[in-house]
Design goal:
79% helix, mainly alpha
Length: 95
């Protein structure tokens, strides 16, 4: 791996971490402002892990696909997969 590739990986990971933290501020504000929205630390950890993992898979895997149609299909599958895991964890639709 070249030095420039390592910098690119480091930069993309830092950007992904920043986006994950920024997205998690939305439920944090909701948890502070309303008593109806009650997330614990495990909810934030799970959400952060899911967001970071989805971004990492997209950044490292899907971006290497050169055909735009195939890239869009792979991105849609990734979004659907993450959404199904999220919904299953939230309400258990597959029980």
């Amino acid at each position: 791996m070249k030095i420039t590739e390592q910098r690119t990986l480091k930069q993309s990971l830092l950007l992904l971490l920043a986006v994950t933290v920024a997205v998690l501020f939305i439920p944090l504000v909701a948890t502070i402002m309303t008593p109806d929205f009650n997330w614990g630390i495990e909810d934030f950890l799970f959400a952060g892990l899911m967001i970071f993992d989805a971004g990492f898979i997209y950044e490292r895997g899907i971006r290497n696909i050169t055909n735009n149609t195939h890239r869009a299909i792979a991105a849609i599958f990734l979004i659907v997969f993450i959404a199904l895991i999220w919904v299953e964890a939230a309400v258990g639709i597959f029980n």
